[in-house]
Design a protein that fits this description.
The complex is a heterodimer.
Chain A lengths: L1 H40 L17 H8 L3 H30 L6 H13 L2 H12 L5 H5 L12 H26 L4 H8 L4 H29 L3 H6 L11 H11 L3 H25 L5
Chain B lengths: L2 H36 L19 H9 L3 H32 L5 H13 L6 H10 L6 H25 L4 H8 L4 H12 L1 H17 L2 H6 L7 H4 L4 E2 L2 E2 L1 H30 L7
Classes of the chains: A mainly alpha, B mainly alpha.
Chain lengths: 289, 279
């Protein structure tokens, strides 16, 4: 039956038949919230209501930006992204270079390094909440910290450590995949010419795996920018806003204060800043997806 | 042993040592939460942690006896993840086939647009959903969560399945079409059967991402539709956290992740990079 319909519709229209369900779904979940956020951001509302009390101009955007916690949360988020992605890239690459050779039990090594990546971030947050606990947690005990990790200036590094724990394997795996896809000839040529290991890495390996590393960094940047579960579960932005990342800040504005106009504006700001960051990054490093 | 031979031996030992430390760091937190879930309560507050004891299932029993909502939460999680997977895999693999086999003017633009949906921070799209679902009476229903999970799962399916379809030579569908198959027929009789393992991997990854989602679930549900991952909040009590029970819940939630790692290893990298990096 369907095939008859297709024969009648012809080649061109069967294309739409394939694309239609996905496109409709994505318009529903991808375009609709965007439009609705524009509506929210341009109107005045009483807290918790969506009955517009008149056109607000750009005052919601102004209110979002001039909020006393906004600059800090923006700074915390950028620090978080830069530090986590940097450490993950470095550690991942080093581990990949070490493991990219014939080793006994390589599969066991790979499998055990893979597990953290697939665990729900919320579960990792609970696990580290336990490990960081000032009374019964092993981190404070073994490292002899003498203070609570999540209740002191160690809170942000503590959360970053969870990110690094969970996502370094990702950078390691894509580095490994890149290393394994390398051709052998340039390396033989370089060895015959007497290049040192460092020279080979710097001038042959790195340029060849660079494109894949750049894609990996892009994916991690996008994911760390929207970090939410760790902070919500472990610190709720505290102590003293030191871990209040952008997503948590927006959550607070939208669902604690119920300021939906400001919330809509904040949503758009978050959206455009990450798009801007990614666009600049892709232009600067000439990343193609 | 020669000098060079000795150096190589030492290097190997060094690498094994580093690998051992890496394994320890990556597995220890998961191991200890499992340990907490089977450790009798008398050892709960001892430091250094007690590693050797007679294991008990008392925390698992208590978790499900005391929190009457937990079985339903578990069921919610299963229904939400399965439905989200079914919807996105169906719609997504059809679209992926079109992207892989047809050439049309806005193809690249559409593909990029699909991907940007995955990039969007969930916090930047959740407020409209919250407001609309509240209005429609869909707040705290499984349907609300299922709909929102489309945002991250559909782009994943489209990109991943496209990469699997790209691996199948297009000549094969040409042959099927000469034999009288329609485009849709070629899809069902040739492309899909040849990529079953890819399809299974994609579906399981979708299931896991839906299972692991925290943000949409915590904002769009309260009691009825709450998935198990968010139900962990209920373990906070006035006496503090019930660690044994938390451990048992975490262990249960981690099981699908372990299954994925054991059976889908070679697809994980491909899945997390949207088919860009193959192993």
């Amino acid at each position: 039956m369907l095939s008859h319909v297709q024969d009648m519709l012809g080649e061109k229209y069967s294309l739409y038949l394939f694309l239609l369900p996905a496109v409709i779904l994505l318009i529903l979940v991808g375009v609709f919230p965007f439009g609705f956020n524009i509506f929210l951001s341009l109107n005045k509302f009483q807290p918790g209501s969506i009955n517009s009390e008149g056109f607000a101009g750009l005052s919601n955007f102004w209110r979002a930006i001039s909020h006393k916690e906004f600059p800090d949360s923006f700074r915390v988020t950028l620090t978080y992204v830069a530090v986590c992605v940097g450490i993950e890239l470095f550690l991942g690459l080093v581990l990949a270079l070490l493991l990219n050779r014939k080793l006994k039990g390589k599969n066991i090594i790979r499998t055990s390094l893979l597990v953290p990546m697939m665990v729900a971030p919320a579960v990792s947050a609970y696990i580290f909440l336990y490990l960081y606990n000032p009374f019964i947690g092993v981190v404070g005990y073994y490292l002899r910290l003498g203070k609570s990790v999540l209740g002191s200036n160690l809170a942000l590094p503590g959360i970053m450590a969870v990110d690094v724990w969970q996502w370094t394997p990702f950078m390691m795996l894509i580095s490994l995949a890149a290393l394994q896809s390398l051709p052998g000839t340039p390396f033989e040529a370089a060895r015959i010419d007497g290049a040192s290991n460092w020279q080979i890495f710097r001038y042959i390996t790195l340029p060849l795996i660079r494109p894949i590393l750049l894609v990996g960094v892009l994916i991690r940047m996008i994911d760390t920018y929207k970090i939410f579960a760790y902070v919500t579960i472990m610190t709720e932005g505290g102590p003293a806003s030191s871990t209040r990342v952008l997503s948590y800040h927006a959550y607070d504005i939208m669902f604690t204060n119920l300021h939906w106009g400001t919330g809509g504006a904040l949503s758009l700001i978050i959206l455009f800043t990450i798009i801007l960051i990614c666009t600049v990054y892709m232009k600067v490093f000439r990343v193609k997806i | 042993m020669t000098r060079v031979g000795k150096q190589i031996f030492l290097l190997k030992m060094g690498i094994y040592l580093i690998a051992a430390v890496a394994i320890l760091i990556s597995v220890y937190p998961l191991f200890i939460i499992f340990l907490v879930s089977v450790r009798p309560r008398i050892y709960s507050f001892t430091l250094p942690p007690v590693y050797i004891f007679k294991p008990t299932l008392v925390h698992y029993k208590e978790t499900f006896l005391w929190h009457s909502a937990l079985p339903r939460s578990l069921w919610n999680s299963i229904v939400i993840s399965l439905s989200s997977t079914a919807i996105t895999v169906t719609a997504g693999s059809l679209a992926a086939f079109a992207f892989s086999r047809f050439s049309f003017r806005i193809r690249d633009f559409l593909l990029q647009w699909v991907l940007t949906n995955r990039m969007f921070p969930a916090m930047a799209v959740v407020l409209p959903f919250f407001i609309i679902f509240s209005r429609l009476g869909l707040y705290d229903t499984r349907l609300a969560v299922i709909i929102t999970h489309t945002i991250f799962n559909l782009p994943l399916v489209i990109w991943l399945m496209k990469s699997f379809f790209d691996d199948i030579p297009a000549e094969l569908d040409e042959v099927a079409r000469i034999d009288g198959c329609s485009r849709l027929g070629a899809f069902f009789r040739v492309a899909l059967p040849l990529s079953t393992s890819g399809l299974a991997a994609t579906a399981i990854l979708c299931f896991l991402f839906s299972w692991n989602d925290y943000l949409f679930a915590v904002i769009l549900t309260s009691i009825k539709a709450r998935p198990i991952l968010v139900a962990t909040q209920g373990l906070m009590s006035y006496q503090g956290m019930r660690w044994g029970q938390l451990g048992s819940l975490c262990t249960i939630i981690i099981i699908p992740a372990i299954i994925v790692v054991l059976f889908l290893q070679k697809y994980i990298v491909r899945g997390l990079t949207f088919g860009a990096v193959k192993e």
